[in-house]
Specification:
Strand content: 15-25%
Helix content: 25-40%
Bound molecules: iron/sulfur cluster
Number of strands: 23
Number of helices: 18
Distance between the termini: 31 Å
Structural class: alpha+beta
Length: 473
């Protein structure tokens, strides 16, 4: 995937396990499988039923954890987190799980998603005397739990969760139990699995495969699961709202070997590629996909159009991540270091280049140039999603429309900017129908806000930057 050079980044991945003697080690493996969801930091908090112990650091999973360190956080339960910072910024204090020790009981939280009312809640809590240790919106949940007037931890947690707005897939760990919650719109994926007697929870089902767990069910919007030594119990903290899972999970973020609500990501992307080939007719010699996330759609496009699929671009996997290089110049160089054209495949050919999305346009422009430098006579860019015109407030790093090329340009202007011979985007209907969800409603259970501007939740005033206000319907 090219998220790091395109400016489209998932915020986080979460993993939890209850009831296994190697909980921390298994969480480490689970986080490895979720590494694509965040590379800035990783952490594990485990419990042996007596206390909670944390191990975390900045960087990749393999950099943060060593076998020696993992041995120090033994226990029968653990939660973990991989982070890409969209809310709160980077820094070790923001690496999750966040751990809070108190004389009335400790708790740790792993959270994937962004709260749209974090600022309001934080202001309210600060006026009541709360002091925040981090700039992460996740800390709000811990304060709300601790300040809740309810008796039991369960009721406190449910009450606190009911006050949150936006996207949240959460794991909360105490010495007695692991709690699992998903926001009422179900904006982020979250699945439950079983591994012998142990319960496993993960952002993506690919994490189950790596630890040998079986998928049991998806967490439902508004659901609150209590997992402890007595087993798993389903409760609710909110009624479900209209299902609005992030469409970009299917298009781009999730791993091809993951399933979301029974739909395999690779298969869904292939169908998107096929639909694209139905929506546009291009005379070309080869189809190629931008690795890794667009390969499935490129195969689908090839199958439908009859134009042979070829490996026209390869990814250099050993280059450091370039998203930490903030300047445009460095980002452009990053593209060149990360991708190479296969000259023999593209030379003298009319190439269809399939990509999953365009954010700034920088990456597309560089890839088109790479293919042309390598001898492609024409480069037709086809995108397996509609133009991204609106910011995301739910945990994806597209927070201002100013940086979105599709927000400020027509398709023809974009084509010219990226230097392609043609540019085609998939239609919204074509995308929704071919992903294959069957939820009631015209959006079939999808969030489409970055494409259509129709946000599934209220967008609280200070979530929106002043110059974005007119864009939010
Ligand atoms: S706005 Fe777009 S990126 Fe954000 S949650 Fe919705 S579909 Fe996903």
């Amino acid at each position: 995937m090219l998220a790091e050079i395109r400016g489209l980044n998932e915020e986080c991945g979460i993993f939890g396990i209850w009831g296994h003697t190697n909980a921390a080690q298994l969480t480490y493996y689970g986080l490895h499988a979720l590494q694509h969801r965040g590379q800035e930091g990783a952490g594990i908090v485990s419990t042996d039923g007596e206390a909670l112990r944390a191990l975390k650091g900045e960087g990749m999973v393999s950099e943060v954890f060593t076998p020696e360190k993992l041995e120090k956080i033994t226990g029968m339960a653990a939660i973990g987190h991989v982070r890409y910072a969209t809310a709160g910024g980077s820094g070790i204090e923001n690496v999750q799980p966040l751990l809070f020790n108190s004389t009335t009981g400790s708790l740790a939280i792993s959270h994937n998603g962004n709260l749209v009312n974090a600022t309001q809640l934080k202001g309210h809590l600060e006026r009541q005397g709360s002091i925040f240790q981090t700039t992460s919106d996740t800390e709000v949940l811990a304060h709300l739990i601790k300040r809740s007037g309810y008796e039991s931890f369960e009721e406190k947690a449910k009450n606190a969760l009911s006050l949150l707005k936006g996207a949240f897939a959460c794991l909360v760990l105490t010495e007695e139990a692991m709690f699992v919650a998903l926001d009422p719109n179900g904006l982020r994926p979250l699945s439950v699995g079983k591994m012998g007697d142990a319960w496993v929870v993960a952002s993506e089902t690919c994490a189950f495969d790596i630890v040998g767990a079986e998928f049991v069910h998806s967490v439902e919007p508004g659901e609150f699961l209590v997992i402890n030594n007595d087993g798993m119990r389903k409760e609710r903290f909110a009624y479900p709202a209209e299902r609005s899972i992030c469409t970009m999970e299917y298009v781009y973020f999730s791993r091809p070997d993951s399933d979301i609500d029974g739909i395999n990501i690779h298969s869904a992307r292939k169908r998107l590629g096929k639909q694209l080939a139905k929506e546009v007719h291009i005379e070309a010699d080869v189809v190629t996909g931008v690795p890794d996330s667009s390969i499935s759609a490129a195969i689908g496009f090839s199958e439908q159009s009859g134009i042979p699929y070829e490996l026209g671009l390869i990814k250099n996997r050993y280059v450091g991540r370039t998203f930490i290089q903030p300047s445009q110049e460095m980002r452009e160089r990053g593209v060149k270091m990360k991708l190479s054209p296969v000259r023999q495949v593209v030379k003298g050919k009319r190439v269809v280049m399939v990509d999953d999305s365009i954010v700034r346009g920088t990456t597309s422009r560089r890839i088109v140039a790479l293919l042309k430098e390598a001898g492609a006579t024409e480069v037709h860019v086809v995108i397996s999603s509609p133009p991204i015109k609106n910011p995301c407030f739910y945990g994806i790093d597209i927070s201002t429309s100013g940086e979105l090329i599709a927000s400020n340009n027509t398709v023809e202007e974009m084509r010219e900017i990226i230097g392609a011979d043609s540019l085609t985007f998939l239609s919204v209907d074509g995308m929704v129908q071919n992903i294959g969800r069957t939820d009631p409603g015209s959006k079939c259970g999808h969030c489409l806000a970055c494409f259509t501007g129709e946000y599934p939740t209220n967008i609280y005033p200070d979530t929106v930057l002043p110059h974005e206000k007119e864009k939010v319907k």
